[in-house]
Amino acid sequence: MASNTLHIAGRVAKQIIRDRRTLGMIIVVPLVVMTLIGLSFPDQGVLDYIAPAMLATLALFFSFLLTGISFLRERSQGTMERLMVSPVVRMNIVIGYLLGFFIFALTQTLIIVLFTIYVLGINFYGDLWQILVFQVIVITGAVTLGIFTSTFARNEFQMVQFIPLIIIPQIFLCGVIWPVEQMPDYLQWLSVVLPLTYAVDGLRDIMLYGANLYDVWLELVILAGFAVLTSVLASLTLRKGA
Amino acid sequence: MINCPTEIAIEVKNVSYNFNKIKAVDGLSLDIPAGISFGLLGPNGAGKTTLIRLIVGLLKPKSGNISLLGHSISRKTSHLIGYMPQLHSLYLELSVMDNLNFFASIYGLNNSKKRNQRVEEVIKLVDLWERRKDPVQNLSGGMRQRVSLACAIVHNPPLLLLDEPTVGLDPELRVTFWKYFASLNEQGTTIIISSHTMDDAAHCNQLAFIRQGKVIAQGIPLEIKQATGKTDSTLEDAFLYFIHREDKIDG
After folding, report:
1. C-alpha of B245 from chain center
2. Taking Cα atoms as reference points, which of B204, B223, B216 lies closest to residue B241?
3. Domain assignment of residue B177, given as a range
4. Is any Cβ of chain B less than 8 angstroms from the Cβ of A23?
């Protein structure tokens, strides 16, 4: 049963590798975005504040979108039907997708971190490995959220509509651009239930204040809880066909 | 592994399924003998695809039972089934070989030597050896259809359910497919084929005419033709005969 998870992970990874343009864009697009951010915020202090938040935001955005659309294609091309007739179980599919995307999402994270440190020159005090471990949890939640959300979309157009519904509000409400404390009380309460709040807080603590994973345990536990919740929801609601 | 203790491969008993208020399958019963090609014939929307999806376990009957080789449908029976959906249902970026390797793996062919051997065998069987490394997206519709069939048979299932497998195939390829189905029958594989063309019906050992989710006639093609009472009846004539008969019964 576990081997089927690995077979699915291997196939997902192979599909991305064979699609050279997607592979190239996974690497190039975040660099273009980070460059624009770097040019838009010449003030070093602002850039230091924004960069860790963008790291979390881009991981959430790309993992959510790529997984959601890949999963949707699995349904619309009919391959999901073949999988559901086979001995594969729903959790194999969810975890297989997760593992398949990890390598690309973490490579993307690594490239962005190195770019922000060495090209944009942010003040960085954390350990690289701790950032990667933290991002594993962020990406897990994003991938399973993408799978769960794709259940409610019947085509790519509908999937893309979930970006303004799920991703953009988090950018405004989770302290990416301005501190949560400066927002009205009712919006602060809303930010408490959004996962990006904890991803941004944790990464800022690690990157800017040299915190370790133990220091950000609360953020890690909340993000892990979110990942478990969305993976269970994703496997329960997995649809067989278009 | 599940043994095959019975001569009836698939037993469908009083099965019903509806999409909201539309009855797609309506109290349908069928006994499909093992080792033959069994055709589900009927117009579009007759309930053929729904019946196949019920048999492979993609849909759960609202009432009635289905058993495969004497066993109720469960995760354990998934190894018994080879399923070719109407869509090609393939990973387009991956090569023919990658697709087959993946489906062989998830059906438990984990020994790489045995798996490679089986994958090679199946690719040669569907005559795609020269194109084995090509991404599926670069293949023609007929070739994709062959890859789809190859994916359904790669784990050597005793039950093969093919949803309109000959749609879009040229006449030469159609003949090749039917020759291949006959050779699988000789090896003991039971094949259930849905189709709306009487050309396919002529190749089947047994047929069931389906209309509005019900079986209106079942038997070997010759018997079905003879049931019309005319010596020169075709299967089209027979199908129309049974439709009219049903309409009269329904008033």
Report:
1. 27
2. B216
3. 8-250
4. no
Is A158 near chain B, with CB under 8 Å?
no
Count Cα atoms within 13 angstroms, Cβ side, for B4: 16
Cα A117 from Cα A114, distance rounded (Å): 5
* Per-residue model confidence (pLDDT) at position B62: 93
Q: What is the DSSP letter of A167?
A: I
Tens digits of per-residue pLDDT, B94-138?
A: 999 999 999 999 999 988 999 999 999 999 988 899 999 999 999
Are B58 and A14 a contacting pair at CB < 8 A?
no
Q: Which residue among B81, B91, B106 places its CB closest to the CB of A7? A: B106
Strands (E), chain B: 8-19, 22-33, 37-41, 63-68, 71-72, 81-84, 159-163, 190-195, 206-211, 214-219
The alpha carbon of residue B82 is apart from the nearest alpha carbon of chain A, in Å, by 8
**Percent of chain A scoring above 90 in pLDDT:** 33
Q: How far apart are CA B176 and CA B230, in angstroms?
A: 32
d(CA A182, CA B83): 58
pLDDT tens sequence across A196-207: 999 999 999 999
B76 lies in some domain: yes
Q: How many other β-carbons are positioned within 10 Å of the β-carbon of residue B16?
A: 16
Residue B1 lies in a domain: no
- Reported ipTM exceeds the 0.95 cut: no
Distance from CA of B107 to the nearest CA of A (A): 6
Distance (Å, rounded) from C-alpha B47 to C-alpha B45?
Answer: 5
- Structurally, chain B folds into a number of domains equal to 1
- Residue contact B89–A84, C-beta within 8 A: no
CATH code, B94: 3.40.50.300
Distance CA A80, CA A238 (A): 10
Reference B161, options A82, A29, A155, A53; nearest CA is A82
Q: Does B18 fall in a domain?
A: yes
